[in-house]
Amino acid sequence: MEAHWEPLSGGSRILVSKDHAFGTDAVLLADFSMPRRGERCADFGTGCGVIPLLWRVRSQGASFVGVELQPEAASLARQSVEANGFSGEITIVEGDLRQWLFPAGSLDRIACNPPYTAPGAGIPCGGQARRTARQGDTLSLQELGEAARHALRFGGRLCVCLRPQRLGEAIEAFHSCRLEPKRLRLVQQRAGKAPFLFLLECRSGGAPGMEVEPVLLLEREDGSPTEEIERIYGDYRDNPEHKRK
């Protein structure tokens, strides 16, 4: 497995490979789920560890855990944590979320960029690593909801990103796990285009009632990034590696 370093944000860097990299959805989810001061946080299915790294650089959370099923991805994440000197604050755990890896009520906030395809919906193209990350047979939304509900304290938050086609399924699955949808934001490439992603925050034990936030646009009509996207990407957007993508 060939891997290389990329600058990330705030002087940090991240080790990525062809099979285990990250995209816009992870950066948007990291911002949408940004921890508050003192929170205990976990990223379920962390991949190469980009979300815990961004949390550590940009927030004042107390502790961060990245959980990853695939050994190769977990190894990349651990190397990034160590290289940045974050070993005392970020822990990478290799394991299956369906085994409930956290004590009950031990977390304040969870982020998850779950497999985009529903179980049995077909096999995504690419190698085994890509299929594991994208195929819902490795983690259904119901299983995610159950694991998150167990680990979150009362009032804790689960934040996810998914394709819009699965919005109804996600709300139903999380509601059945007593995770009440509280905040929703759709993401569009530019005005006039259909949304390609949604960001959803659910609260453990929360009362009914969901706020729908303004649509997040990635580009202006001329193709340049919007002011909000410039803010979300921050100094990562200035990296030469990112500009070449």
Structural commentary:
With 245 residues, the chain is α/β, with parallel strands linked by helices. The chain is 29% helix and 27% strand. Helix 1 packs across helix 2 and helix 5 (141-151) crosses helix 6. 40% of the residues are buried. It holds the Pfam family MTS.
Portion of residues in beta strands equals: 25-35%
Number of helices: 8
Structural class: alpha/beta
Poorly predicted regions? 240-245
What summary fits the major beta sheet? 9 strands, mixed
Distance between the termini: 21 Å
Percent of residues in helices: 25-40%
Overall geometric form: globular
On the 0 to 100 scale, the average pLDDT is 90
Order of helices and strands: EEHEHEHEEHHEHEEEEHH
Radius of gyration: 17 Å
The tally of strands reads: 11
Which terms summarize this structure?
29% helix, alpha/beta, two-stranded antiparallel sheet, nine-stranded mixed sheet, 245 residues, globular, 8 helices, disordered C terminus
Characterize this entry briefly.
The protein is α/β, with parallel strands linked by helices and 245 residues long. The protein is 29% helix and 27% strand.
Provide the fold topology.
Elements: E1 3-7, E2 13-17, H1 24-32, E3 40-44, H2 50-58, E4 63-68, H3 71-83, E5 90-94, E6 107-112, H4 128-134, H5 141-151, E7 152-162, H6 167-176, E8 179-188, E9 197-204, E10 211-212, E11 216-217, H7 227-233, H8 240-243
Helix pairs in contact: 1-2, 5-6
